[in-house]
Amino acid sequence: MKVDYRALKERFSSMLVRVGFESSRAEMVARVFAETTFDGVYSHGINRFPRFIGDVKAGTVDPVAVPRLIRRSGAMEQWDGQKGPGILNALYCTERAIALAKKSGIGCVGLRNTNHWMRGGTYGWKAAEQGLMFLGWTNTIPNMPAWPGNAVSQGNNPFIVAIPHEKAPLVLDMAMSQYSYGKLEWYRRNGKQLPEYGGYDLENRLTKDPAAILESGRILPIGLWKGSALSLVLDLSAAILSGGSTSCRIGEGATETDLSQVYMAVDIGRFMEQEKIDHLIEETLQYNKTRNPGSRCPGQRSMEERMANRKSGIEVPDRLWKEIGEL
Q: Domains in the chain, start-ordered, CATH in brackets?
């Protein structure tokens, strides 16, 4: 069935109110889930929503908790998410980083004891649309082997970089694995193979079968040993800057919670006029397109999906729509 943006957001919001969210907070969370879905990132939008409601019901996510300031030094702050909703904690800390950057030129916020932020690119878009450059990352439960081993010991620790641009921000949103677990689940749910190799099966063979990878738990790091190394330093730096937990500590729990995250914003307008920034970006993108026709820039597909889905609605499987209504 086809569903428009408003209907999807309203269904999300009504479910959130039922499980204990105050209406304005429910609307904010619902908006992020709906926008993520309409940008084509179903794995962290509609497909993830039932799991999020389950986390609230299980007590992993506290719907009324708000971040608490731990310490402040110059343009750096540490906050405790108090196991609140990852989306709301992330939106708040993004705004804090933006406020610090507007005051000092740069702002950095470390957040600990929080939950899954869903699509990390959401916070890059938010900062870039206000004219700020953004860098952010989070650690996760251990879900990826350290290269060249077989045992899961590292997170796939998503990393975001966003650059403001007059036409549309450039937003890189990537995990340290070739495919995120949310993407694997989306391909499996729809009975599709991955376009490229995404991990190993139980026989230690490279495969494009999402079900086999989910069964083995052996996702493939981007760049092999390079992705593994980047995962490690992102994990440690998130824990250090937030004063929180590393992936190995997070893995000691029964579920994925107590995450550590970093939000950095830079007021680049202080150092280069926006007109020059836009020219620099356009020159670089055009150079890529001329030499490599068909190449895309980070965030381009999301913008295209957003425009198409806002116009015609998105196709939601009947069973998934029914499942969300019965949560």
A: 2-177+221-273+301-325 (3.30.1370.60), 179-220 (3.30.60.50)
